[in-house]
Amino acid sequence: MDRRQFSKLALLAGSLAPFLPGCQALSRHQASNAGPATASPHLSKDEAEAASHKAHEAFMSVNEQDFKMLGEEHIAMLLYPGFAALDLVGPQYLFAAMMGAKIYLISPTDNLKPVVSGEGLAIVPTHTQSECPKKLDIFFVPGGANGTLEAMKNAKLIDFIAGRAAESKYVTSVCTGSLLLGKAGLLKGKKATSHWTMLELLPEFGAMPVKQRVVWDGNLITGGGVTAGIDFGLEIVAALRGKVYAQTIQLEAEYDPAPPYDAGSPEKAEPFVRDNLKNIFAPLLEKLRLAV
């Protein structure tokens, strides 16, 4: 995050720091002196700079356990043909908001050609597998559908996952990315989650399936289907930088879900919708079972 990005973040959220849960480390005197930094369109240039500076000071006065401004995290996010774009993009947005963090988008091949997701969105990798650091703070694997099935058959890719996971602080996935972790032997004896239609496959890898948005088991962190990646990302940001940092990024992203339909889980969806969607996924489920 450069100075301009930080200033935007400070202006946006600095005024809220004294009031956010987790900012109790600020005394009343500090909070009153910090004052609200209002990003009003009527502020002069000097007033806007002063508000930004005051917001910066408010953040820096928060206990580091609640808010760690700077870090040097190394985060590798694996790409492969047919991955689910939102599995990757949701967490990447949140990780990229951590000042000082370095994100590596890892190619599935030895070149940096764009990798096309299952939805047709092409992402350009930043590094090849050989360029990926061996010691990582976060190693992340997205899910997919047929793309995940093909990735499970790619021995070189699975070996890469196993190798990088062995030296990573956190080994993580969203959606069916957990199946790739399982294929790499990383789920044995672990609690984990995946897309709800694929949960029954996790015991095949020696895992204990948990129907939950985000599941932690030691250094293994798995997220449920697609949109769970945002909750997943916020929890990891909080673990690395503190609760206030995560809340600030959540507010900056205006992540305040209010779906038009209460149908986001098999327990809530209409039986007609749930059962037919499950049947649509049935052939893929059986193909993945064979790939295990």
TrEMBL record:
Annotated signal peptide: none
Organism in which the protein naturally occurs: Candidatus Methylobacter oryzae
InterPro entries associated with the record: Class_I_gatase-like (IPR029062), DJ-1/PfpI (IPR002818), INH-QAR (IPR052158)
Name of the protein described by the UniProt record: DJ-1/PfpI family protein
Highest taxon listed in the record's lineage: Bacteria
Residue ranges of domain DJ-1/PfpI in the record: 74-238
A Pfam family reported for this protein in Swiss-Prot or TrEMBL: DJ-1_PfpI
Record region (Disordered): 31-50
